[in-house]
Amino acid sequence: MLDHVGMYKPPVLIIENVAALVNPTSENWKAIKADIDSLQYVVKYFLMDSKDYGLHQRRPRAYLVAIRPSAFNLDMEAAYSLLQAIGQNVQRLKINPLSQDWVMLPDDSQIVEQVLSHMQSRETDEKEKADWFAEHISHVANLGVASNSIKVPDHVASSPWYQTLPAREQHILALHFQDSAPR
């Protein structure tokens, strides 16, 4: 991969990998950092976990961001300062996940077990999925939120990523944009 970076010299390089990649004592990290440095890039890594960005999933990842200072008429110090600012802005994007009460129904553990059983046997039952969604809408309404008021901003709704989400995940993500959602 870094061979292509040396060949094409992109102004910015972003690499995502497991968090262990950037362990300061790791020979892999030392080699990657040395390679990036040799290509005249300033590099900084950020450790991020999806749970810190509103998802109910722990997925710690390392994000390496490297800037080729000459592409922006920056010296090395200014490029590093820019990377620091990027890191600070990423930290500001952190949100508290929704309360589990807004995501899980009281008997969801049974539903999860049923779904896993269906997945293992390769059976799908669209009626159960529809029933879960209808029950979830009812549950949120009991918490005081009308389902027709649960919407994501237009820029989110129009993104290709959002459009690939199943209805359940779209609905749960939309709850994040509700002012009344407990955090």
Model description:
This protein has helices spanning 2-8, 27-38, 76-92, 100-103, 108-120, 126-142, 154-157, 160-163, 167-176; strands at residues 12-18, 42-49, 60-67. The chain is an alpha+beta fold. The protein has 2 domains: 2-92, Rossmann fold (3-Layer(aba) Sandwich), CATH 3.40.50; 100-176, no CATH class. It has a 3-stranded antiparallel β-sheet with strand order 1-3-2, with helices on both faces. The longest helix is centred in the middle third of the chain and has 17 residues, at 76-92. The radius of gyration is 22 Å and the shape is elongated. The mean pLDDT is 81.
Please outline what is shown here:
This protein is α+β, with helices and mostly antiparallel strands. Helices cover 48% and strands 13% of the residues. It has helices at 2-8, 27-38, 76-92, 100-103, 108-120, 126-142, 154-157, 160-163, 167-176; strands spanning 12-18, 42-49, 60-67.
Number of strands: 3
- Overall mean pLDDT score? 81
Return the CATH class of the largest domain.
Alpha Beta
Poorly predicted ranges (pLDDT <50, ≥5 residues)?
A: none
The structure class reads alpha+beta
Q: The CATH topology of the largest domain, please? A: Rossmann fold
SSE blueprint:
Blueprint (H helix, E strand, L loop, with lengths): L1 H7 L3 E7 L8 H12 L3 E8 L10 E8 L8 H17 L7 H4 L4 H13 L5 H17 L11 H4 L2 H4 L3 H10 L7
Write a concise keyword list for the protein shown above.
single chain, 183 residues, alpha+beta, Rossmann fold, 2 domains, three-stranded antiparallel beta sheet, 9 helices, 48% helix, 13% strand
